[in-house]
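Lab channel / #folding
Pinned by the channel admin:
"Please post every new chain as: sequence first, then the structure tokens as a reply. Keep commentary short and put observations after the output so the thread stays searchable."

First post following the new format, from NK:
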Amino acid sequence: MFTQKHQQQSEALLQYGASDFSLALLKEIPFLDLAQLSVNLDLPKVAFRAAWALEHIVLKNTYLIEEHKDVIIQNYCFSNNWSVLRSYSKIMMWMTSKANQSFDLTEVEEESIIEKTFQIVEDASCPVAVLVNAFDILFQCIPNHPWLAQELKLQIELQLEKEASAALKSRGNKLLKALSKIKY
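Reply from TO:
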């Protein structure tokens, strides 16, 4: 349900810039409200701004990711808004990376992330920025899911066969080189 409070928060979000996305913002718009706004299907621009704010805030204050990881994973898996997924995929990249020394993902959480990430990779309309983030997420999940190495290699090669942008070629070739060093 979209309340008057959410309406006011939405209007405020549309006025903020990246420099406003700090912990102080959470005093005006609590984390869970931002998370709810980020998956609002009726207001895609507000959803983008909320996800963008969350990305900036949690990547600077990663303890918030552990505190709210269930909501973050749920929103990543739920969203089909490419602008929102660009921000959530950056958070997923941190969650699945070696930089995350704070917590481990459960097997169920990792499987949910992998399933959604493959949906992203296989979607022909996926923007390059989200696609390369998805490649990184899958690559970082290989230690717990070795079968991903071959699947990821095939997906990258398929994307590179298409008209690939410079960003896709750069990240794709980097990952293919890293994948070539993995025994599978």
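NK: The longest helix spans residues 44-60.
TO: also worth noting, The chain has eleven helices and no strands.
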